[in-house]
Amino acid sequence: MDTTTKVGVTQSVVEKSTIRKISIRLVPFVALMFFINYLDRTAIGFAAPNGMNDDLGLSLAQVGFASGVFFIGYILLEVPSNLALHRFGARRWLARIMVSWGIVAFLFTFVQNFEQLAALRFVLGVAEAGFFPGAILFLSLWVPARHRSKILALFYLAQPLTTVIGAPLAGALIQQHGVFFGLEGWRFMFLCVSVPAIIVGVIAWYYLKDKPSEAKWLTSDERTWLTAELEGERAVTEKSNKHVGIGSAFKSGRVWMLAFIYFGFIYGLYSLAFFLPTIIAGFQELYGTEYGIFEKGLITAIPYVPAAIVLYLWSRDATRRGLKTWHIAVPAVVGAVSIPFALYAGSPVLTIAIIAVTASAIFAALPNFWTLPTQFLTGAAAAAGIALINTVGNIAGFSAPYITGAVADWTKVGDTPQFQVPMFIVGGFMLLSAVLMLILARQRKAADALGTSNLAAPTVLK
Fold first, then answer.
1. Which residues are registered as beta bridge partners of 416?
2. How far apart are the C-alpha atoms of 279 and 270, rounded to whole Å?
3. Contact at 8 Å (CB) between 119 and 110?
4. What is the dihedral of CA 133, 119, 170, 352, to 10 degrees?
5. DSSP letter string over 154-222?
6. How far apart, in Å, are the Cα atoms of 426 and each of 202, 221, 263, 289, 407?
7. pLDDT averaged over consecutive 10-residue blocks of the chain (462 residues)?
8. Which of 84, 179, 209, 280 could form a disulfide with 214 if both were Cys (CB 3.0 to 4.6 A apart)?
9. 197 and 40 in contact (C-beta within 8 Å)?
10. Which of 277, 323, 274 is nearest to 297 (CA)?
């Protein structure tokens, strides 16, 4: 048999076994960290309409501000935190972040007024800063580029599943009034969702490894193949793009374009995350329906079940075909068109069905989107660039809930907030993401024609 064929076959077997082990051993744990992260930051959305607003005397605008002020602290320390991760290693830094935010999340149990709520949300953002881009960077440092859509899709499944599992769980916890030292149900919920962050953060210190060469759960051949593959990709990226320093990330037009594309998706994501429970609570007045707290949690979870399925299948298609522009642009258009019309549906069932389409569109695009930065960034530039994209995108994390709550209050009829105008704003930002994605792809084609592709869009786009 030809020697080259033997080597190719052996490498293929080693490659498959390596990616399978990473998918089983590493990705589920990092996804669990993300699950806890997203649940802690969105717990306020479950607490607000289920006792917290009444107990603290909050308006929707105040809830929106408290929800969004999290992202001010988050944004301020996002880039420094990711650079610290690059310097000190993911194991130490991600573990530190989790324990820190778990302690802050625990303090929500005892909040007494709007001022304390807003202050704690700000500090929670400071504590969580760097976790998400750090997790994306960490997984990118373990997986060759051609496998990243699949791996990031498995990781990203944690986000919709947080609502699928977390919403009914939060509803069940909120119903437990007085079971623990007389705490109101929403306070008991905050207590229960904070503890796992501290526990898993401590475990992460011992469980994670900073690089493949330290992974004893890989065989010698697997470690050798993976290290060589990743080093080869890094060398090619450094040679062709020169984006290796921190400054190059901030000067890159591609990074800023990706940041604004991400802004539109995050605006839609957090508008849904923070206000979907409130919208569902409004069904009672709109349609004459009445739901218990646990039932509201189940209804909140419904749109995220198809979203998780679509996320996986869409990313699987991107892996099979190779990522195309339409893998990101089409979901943006679908989300932009669907979300404003959800509130004109005329029934709870149809409203939730349309919101499910929007959620599916957002989650279909996000894991594929995050394969783009590391196509042209490496080293400190990758750490800074991913953090910068996430920072600009998460400005929407502050503005979306605040604008949504404020506009809903301003346009209310009688005592009933109106969400039609806020949802059209969501649709507009998502449509902008689609337009920018098409512009980025056009830049790539123009650069190819001129032979200057290093200055254009990420090479993956077609």
1. 413
2. 13
3. no
4. -70
5. HHHTHHHHHHHHHHHHHHHHHT-TTTTTT--HHHHHHHHHHHHHHHHHHHHHHH--SSGGG-TTS-HHH
6. 38, 49, 11, 26, 12
7. 42 86 92 90 85 90 85 82 82 93 94 94 91 86 85 86 84 84 90 94 92 89 91 73 59 85 89 74 73 80 91 88 88 90 80 90 90 75 80 81 81 78 88 92 69 46 54
8. 209
9. yes
10. 277
58: left (phi over 0), alpha (psi -120 to 50) or beta: beta
Q: Which amino acid is at 68?
A: G
CATH of 23-455, one of 3.10.180.10, 1.20.1250.20, 1.20.120.50, 3.40.1190.20: 1.20.1250.20
Structure tokens belonging to residue 61: 């605008």
Q: What is the DSSP string of 392-413?
A: HHTHHHHHHHHHHHHHHHHT-B
Burial class of residue 450 in the structure, from the number of CB atoms within 10 Å of its CB (0-12 exposed, 13-18 middle, 19+ buried): exposed
Q: What residue has token string 């592709």?
A: 453
